[in-house]
Write a structure and sequence with these properties.
Layout lengths: L6 H12 L11 H10 L3 H14 L4 H13 L3 H14 L4 H13 L3 H14 L8 H9 L3 H14 L4 H15 L1 H6 L12 H8 L5 H9 L6 H21 L2 H14 L5 H17 L1
Helix pairs in contact: 1-4, 1-6, 2-3, 2-4, 3-4, 4-5, 4-6, 5-6, 6-7, 7-8, 8-9, 8-10, 9-10, 10-12, 10-14, 12-13, 12-14, 13-14, 14-15, 15-16
Length: about 280
């Protein structure tokens, strides 16, 4: 997704600002070391030092927040959930902890639990609702399609030119109103510059075929980050298109390609990975 200002980014900023400044803390203080490691993207060291800081100060919020953030950056979702749960035991209404735990739960395929955390965030900060596309995705996977439609309609106010928002709105709406009505009510987007989002929009509008989306992505060089990202998103949204059409084989084929061939550092890769993991578990 491509919101103007990600709520996750806002939560991170709020959390990092809340951390105790390095000034006044000893050089060998584990919390100071954890903060410094985190800012250098050394998440392994940040996790190690945050654990030490948490053990030294059991009732302190910051080490647990930092541990959760570093775990999330390392794609250790179970570790992130545990850290933010510990943070919430100290401060139950901490919006950043609730929101970040919701992310980790969503990326773990625990969709109902993710919805519960995101709902708690909006109960505390209702003005954040237009930004919260992640809640919409959790609602879709939790089977709460009507609520998902409403969430993606709300997100349109914050980010009107996002093809992904239009696609997820369609996916939810197709479950509620049927594919024909969902296509007629597809959110119009004309200025999303990312490849292959123009073709994805037309795919869900019924104007192009999956092959056209894949071909658009293939125009970018495969050995570039842009080319890898384009192929990931092409396969993801082709998979979701087939999912909506009831073609499980094609859904699995393209979802597997998106996750296993085109691993990227974006939030949506984690969403796709959680769906594929859930799908494989169901088939077993």
């Amino acid at each position: 997704m491509a919101p103007k200002l990600s709520l996750a980014v806002a939560a991170l900023a709020l959390t990092m600002c809340a951390l105790t400044p390095n000034a006044g803390r000893a050089q060998d203080d584990p919390l100071r070391k954890a903060e410094e490691a985190y800012r250098k993207d050394d998440f392994k060291a940040a996790i190690e030092q945050a654990k030490l800081a948490a053990a030294a100060e059991p009732k302190r919020l910051e080490p647990r927040m930092l541990l959760g953030l570093a775990s999330g950056q390392s794609r250790d979702q179970a570790g992130a959930v545990a850290a933010f749960t510990a943070a919430l035991a100290i401060e139950p209404k901490n919006v950043s902890a609730l929101d970040r735990r919701g992310d980790a739960l969503l990326k773990s395929g625990k969709y109902a639990e993710a919805v519960a955390d995101f709902d708690a965030v909006l109960a505390l900060r209702p003005e954040l609702a237009p930004e919260h596309w992640r809640r919409g995705i959790a609602l879709y996977y939790a089977g709460k399609f009507a609520e998902g439609v409403a969430q993606f309609e709300t997100h349109r106010k914050a980010n009107p030119e996002d093809v992904e928002n239009a696609a997820w709105h369609y996916l939810c709406n197709a479950k509620v109103a049927g594919k024909e009505k969902a296509r007629a009510q597809l959110i119009a987007v004309t200025r999303d510059p990312r490849v292959p989002m123009a073709e994805v929009q037309k795919l869900f509008a019924g104007q192009l075929q999956p092959a056209d989306v894949l071909a658009a992505a293939d125009k970018l060089k495969p050995d570039t980050e842009a080319g890898k990202e384009a192929r990931f998103y092409a396969n993801l949204y082709v998979a979701l298109h087939y999912e909506s059409a009831g073609d499980d084989a094609k859904r699995t084929e393209h979802l597997t390609a998106a996750v296993e061939k085109y691993k990227i550092g974006h939030y949506m890769w984690d969403v796709a990975d959680a769906e594929l993991t859930t799908l494989k578990a169901a088939k077993k």
